[in-house]
Batch of 4 targets.
Target 1
Amino acid sequence: AFKMAKHVQQTRRTSLPITFDPPQFGLDTCATSFLRAPHCPPVTRSPICIALVGLPARGKTYIAKKLGRYLNWIGLNTRVFNVGEYRRKAVGAKQSYDFFNPKNKEAQDARVKCAVEALKDVQDFLLREGGQAAVFDATNSTVERRKLILDHCIPQCIKVFFIESICDDPELIDENIKAVKVSSPDYAGINTDEAIEDFKKRIHMYTDAYQSLDIERDKDLSWVKIYNVKQRYEANMIEGHLQARLVYYLMNIHIRHRSIYLCRHGESVCNLYGRIGGDSDLSDRGQEFAQKLKQFIDKQKINGLKIWTSQLKRTIQTASYLPGQHEQWRALNELDVGDCEALTYEQIQEKFPSEFALRDQDKYRYRYPRGESYEDVVHRLEPVIMELERRDNVLVICHQAVMRCILTYIDTDTLVENPMKMWYIGWNLL
């Protein structure tokens, strides 16, 4: 028992699954299951295809990219498959609205072929490449097209979850067309007014054949409908934890333009001595940074800016000069370094040499003795992410590890397409 306990102590430092075989004496089934289980259990054990449904200019691609980013962030190997990209590769980008006429048999056959090619890639990703979730981004606006998805997935034991975006607000539709569609590869080099006119005709082609998900006809399918972005939701046959989680996520996102500012706290006393963790006050230089931060924020002239901090003194003191509503989040506290609290990295290497080596092997999954890993931080930050999606303008004053985890969710490469504009404020204000 002593040897086993010692082995557990050596292996529990990371959040990877423990795979050693325990001795046959003195260990019941429950204990064996606990030792073998990963710290963060998988969200799903069955591959899933998440298929978007809706007319053009209803925000499907925006939702698809958000879902792909979110699912990858919580640890699911996810890929987005945009059928429009397959179509552009097969027949070229610049196709007039008549190409999308359901009565145009030649074009219809070409579009179905593109959808089948994308579905084959979905199968390869989920069944042979280690994928866990695929987001199938297309209109999928008819019963026949949705049956095509089911026929490719269900026999392969791939779950299917439909997300339909419905919008009958002309202003929202026009805004989406002007903001996204006219700048797509389909209209490269074409006059804006001509592009808008052609795209509206394209929508009309889809409208004639459009078949929405129906509570009677599709009662055995898993789906959720989103009406006018966040006005109303309708859900059917939500099966399992992941689908419930996706519905909750979809109920939180919105497309209003707003700014998110991420700011590390000012220099602390522990920073001066190179010590990690702790709950020390700001240094003199940290106080100077807090005052400069106020000047910077005042210049931005942001209406209704909310200030979020962790519950540690260095973030609260950094925000102390800022007017407005302040909220303290325990979830924003710095990564818990456990037994290494207030030590320097040199002291950690001297006191815990094996721990120091383990950390270098896998910094994301390494867990400090009696502390946390980056993976743990990601999981406790999920409520913060949900609230960020719901809110408008927010300044988040937090810590280095926490900020890294938030930045992996906010994809800075797609800020042009993402209405959640993000700014990072570092110590360079000084």
Target 2
Amino acid sequence: QGYAPLLVYRLHPLADSPPNMAPKKKVEEEVMGPWMLGRFSKALKVGLVGMPNVGKSTLYNSLSKSHHSKTANVPFCTIDPSETRAFVEDPRFDWLVALEKPKSEVKAFLTVVDIAGLISGASKGEGLGNAFLSHIQAVDGIIHVMRAFEDDDVIHAEDTVDPVRDINTICNELRIKDISYMQSRKEMHKKQQSAARTKSPAHLKAWEVELECMEKILAWLEEGKDVKNGMSHWTTKDVEFLNDYGLLTAKPTMFAVNMNHRDYCRKKNKFLKPIYDWVQANAPGSAIIPYCGAYEEELQDMETDKEREDRLKEDATTSAMNKMISTAFGMVHLINFFTSGPDEVRAWTIRKGYKAPQAAGCIHTDFEKGFIMAEVMAFNDLKELGSEGAVKAAGKYRQEGKNYEVQDGDVIFFKFNVGKGK
């Protein structure tokens, strides 16, 4: 029979000195955010949502640095959602690459979905309504793309440019769809009352608790409020049900404001103040990122980084794409940890709150099943001290067990038992 071998997942040899056990830390309780109202998944996605012809496909092309989404000046030029990986620029990753000079480098990425334009009446099937709403249901966070430029050559679904009217239209459609879904769900639930009563008093009680939650959610939506804006209103039990329902207005959001080149460079635009006021009133805490779609596309089309840098310097501005990607990354509560060595430097993307075994499972499911320990260095310690050996000598190289919550920027080596992974 024999014992299963102990396998150490690491990308460079152990230094001699033993790791120290981590000191116990005080745990600060985190404030619940809309990111809690979703799938606790390893493959989160964000969707670009907006009216037709506001610049979603142009933004998508810039985020993916490729041109796979059809860009045309007609409503509904995207019908099936396109999907791409937007790579996250991270100076920590670049530093590790410079340190290790590895054979392979793998950056972190965010999956972005280009969802077709929504119009008034989408919840009743107008335009290509129902298909669009189901595409939105499949993402974990929403980037609302808003048009804040006037151009007679680019038609608008409502004939005039008014980003606040557009965002109201979209949010109303999402809310109407949520109300309709919750009403159907409630009707189905009511039919299960007698079965729950027959089973046991405990089943009946559970049925009543869910009915009460459904009525609470419906009342909130019917008051014209989005589910994500009621985080202080929802109990832990409500959050469990909301995660199951997957409502459209529960998804965390951010706002990408598409301006013309002149307004973007001077950071002024007549639509910005009304958009800001609307977001504060209707989606407090959500990020607003101004950008210029045509300019970003022009930058991506340049052949060299030098050309891009010269153009940005000439215009005294910066590209908004990195900020857009990193903000979306944080919006759905994603963080990175790193594995680093001469063979490979890699950024792994996980949901904030993952314990060490779950993080190990992102590398391979066997790592989670046979998890023994994680050997951890904080990136800042490694950068400050310069090498793994120096981190160990300073007593900052730690062994962590299965209850350790992985922190953003951890450099980790996992030990696991091969036999348990089978």
Target 3
Amino acid sequence: MISKASKRVKFDCHPIFSKWAKPNIYGSGKLFEFIKDSSKLQHRSTGPALLTYNPSYFREVCMRMDKVVQPKNLTYKRHIIDMPDGGKVGVDEISNDEELPKSDYPSLLYCTGGADHSYTARSKVRANWFLEAGYPSVFIVNRRCCGRVQQYSPQITVPYGKYNDLPEIVDYLVDIMPERKWILIGSCFGAQNVLDYFSQSSSNRCEVLGGIVDSFQFNGKMFLDGHYTSRVPFFQNSRKLILNVFVDAALNHAVNKTVYDQVSELVDRSKFKNINLTDKSAVKLVNEELICKMCPDAPFSTQEEYYAMTSPYYDENHKNFLSIQKPLVLVYAQDDPFSSFDLEMIEILKENPNLCLWLYPGGGHIIFTERLIPYSCYLKDVYLENAELLVRKQWEL
């Protein structure tokens, strides 16, 4: 997605020429100053570049390793949350009886990547990072816009559900556990939801300390353009996966005839018969026939209007990230083949002092592998260090 003309950050150690990849940290406010002054990770070597630089090769390997190391002793408790549109969302509360939680630590609300849910190996591994560190519980959101919607969020009465259910989910959790504090984390599509949530005024509440996201699509315009222009195999495969999720959830997962008929009134199903999701024309069809018409925040007149609303940044007239009033750490790999990056992003983010960017030269999309044997992900330490900082400095941020 990065054009040849795009400016790129120069790192002390680039993964093509070096075995190690180190982050550069950017920001302009207190959060940035606290991290710069106290972080033990900002100059730490992170791992062999070959494991991260070409994630299209190593994604399957890393997913298999997640399955090997996933914890077996997690306890699940399902919360079914009623939404204002009549639908329901399933949120799983995960704990570990073998770990002793610290009394002053908050709970985590985790929004997964597009291909994950609360029972995938990656979700279990990441939840266990925090449980082992003393956090009392991790709540994982199973989005309604998901091909597994019936299994993990059992009822959906409006196609897709809202673009983002996090405001209602946070309200629910705060109501039933008023004594707890919260940190929101998100990856990929889940990161988009977290960024969107923090851009809303309802997020500015004392129970929410802040957030951490990785592998996010910051620039909506570049992301939309990439759907039509990218030739990166990993991006093309991911695009196919996302399109399939939208089509599957929208057209096939109506739980009753009434909803099925509602979809039929909005969308010409015949256009999607035998659709080739690898073709660029499918992008336009899904955007204009499904997303723009069926998202409850719709109708959108154009696909550009949709991405301008749902992205942290689209252009000079659409800067949703400026509304973020809570401390938010953003972790990003420059070689991410699926999430657009450009040097201008650094200066744009500095416009909001509540944001701090950890920019790695290597890491791929969500992977951030440190080593395969024994398998580890350096994102773990970055998440834990920044979560601890949000707790320790909560009265100063």
Target 4
Amino acid sequence: MSSVDVVKAYIERIRQINPLLNAMVDDRFEDAIREAETVDRLVSSGEKTEEQLLIETPFLGVPFTIKDCFRCKGLRQTFGLVVRRDTIAEEDAAVVKMVKAAGGILLGVTNTSEVCMWWESNNKVYGRTSNPYDTTRTCGGSSGGEGSLIGGAGSIIGIGSDIGGSIRIPAFFNGIFGHKGTRGLVPNDGQFLAAEGELINYNSTGPMCRYASDLLPMFKILAKSNLDKIRLDDPVDIKKLRYFYVENGLGSPLVSNVHPESKNAMKKVVTHLEKAYGIKAQKMDFRELNYAGAIWSAKMATGSTASFSSLLTNCQGELNLPLELLKWFGFCSDHTFPSLMLCIFEKVLSLDLDRLSFLNSKCDVLLSRIQQLLGDDGVLLFPPLPRLAPYHNQPNFTPFNFHYTAIFNMLGLPVTQCPLGLSVGGLPLGIQVVGNLYCDRLTLAVALELEKAFGGWVSPSQIP
């Protein structure tokens, strides 16, 4: 099959599903077809051997998509802000350049939440993106457009960013794989919330895909300058790993309890490891997880030099919050309800030095405990969000459930989100696989094992 055939097939699929999902928000289809034609000419010319092409351009002719917050030359970069609706990127972000250099062909950019800071992908520029398994439900956020498009078979591989779960939440809700790498491995240059202050340690760019086998080659490209730290080519023997799991989540009154079907999915993974390999996973309880949300909020508040209110103005001053609330009640605001609520939360959040020191201490203790537990041969199985993909707007009533993913951004640990089939109601189930710092290869290897055992991505519809 030629690159042109593959690219055209995905373009056709996007045109079929995008009216239902509203996932892709700007495209470069004609350019992509021309680039695919160039690839096919190169392959047929015989100028380079198949081995040379594989080494130099491992993703030669493969289409990919990316979240709207990344710069992609010639495409809009709005990150959901009305004031940026006509902003066209003049150059590519670092990771876009990397994948293109590896032979990838960019199809377009996908929807996000407003300024990428909410776990539903909805904004006043492009509107709401839906879940391919049930369009009355959310696709998650903030890389929700990417998750929805890939889950709906409109893209084979994509790139998201994750500062509180923005890769893993959409991966969970849309039944695909997503990887948030160890902190600092992948450059964030050329995207919104790239490398400002301490945020560089919390924000992680990573791959999203339907098949676990695509995670490793994608991550190799994205983390190219730091491969010596993570030894991705070292073999991993699943049978020799140690496994730990947390069953009941965070234990905070601010978050929902873990859904019974998610608990059952966790038990099935633990049972599989025992039956297939004779491995007894150890159940764990970390008291420090009770402070997960407070730790994330404190570190985000002190790690950025720009307020959330200023981000909503594209850093052109501060948002007039009272006026904007009046406009919202009058149905004429350019901002979403969650964004305005985050502004209010930011203004009422008060952190004295003693409280900040206390939370930093809890974070340090939690990281130390997990690191000592896992060593270089252990993984921690952890629930994804406590509820399966909720209905649109339902996250407004459970705003803190994202703490299940957000705590690992503050710890800097690698996490791979893996699908585990569908619930009784047809919604994706899943699990987070957490590794020690720079042990990304372990979580990626476990993802392959879980795909083999539980089937991985399940198509939400018949694909012609």
